[in-house]
Write a structure and sequence with these properties.
mainly alpha; 56% helix
């Protein structure tokens, strides 16, 4: 298993764990926190990727799910773990395709959120 895949799998497991905690706990409230627009300024150029967007892109890079969809899926542990398996197998397949230098990414590998 590649190191990046292990890291991404553990990140998804941890965010799922945090989102299943009590809704009044800080870790649940701020795990997928996105600052309001206009909050602070950054330099010109491509905007940095914040953590909720990073998690959404781990799940599906083409059509990232919303924060509400991520929260709803994470509440059900079995569903989250099955999605985590699909995500990680997509990452593995993408990794092997990259190694093989394939020109086309197969459409059947994409995960669609429920």
């Amino acid at each position: 298993e590649p190191l990046t895949q292990t890291i991404q799998r553990r990140q998804l497991r941890y965010i799922g764990h945090c989102l299943r905690r009590n809704t009044n706990e800080f870790i649940n409230m701020y795990a997928l926190y996105t600052p309001k627009s206009g909050h602070g300024t950054r330099k010109r150029g491509r905007p940095r990727l914040n953590y909720p967007d990073y998690v959404a892109r781990l799940i599906n890079n083409d059509t990232p799910p919303t924060i509400e969809e991520i929260r709803k899926t994470a509440v059900n542990r079995e569903e989250w773990q099955s999605n985590e398996f699909i995500i990680i197998s997509n990452v593995t397949a993408a990794f092997h395709l990259k190694i093989a230098q394939a020109k086309v990414f197969p459409t059947w590998l994409h995960f669609t959120p429920v």
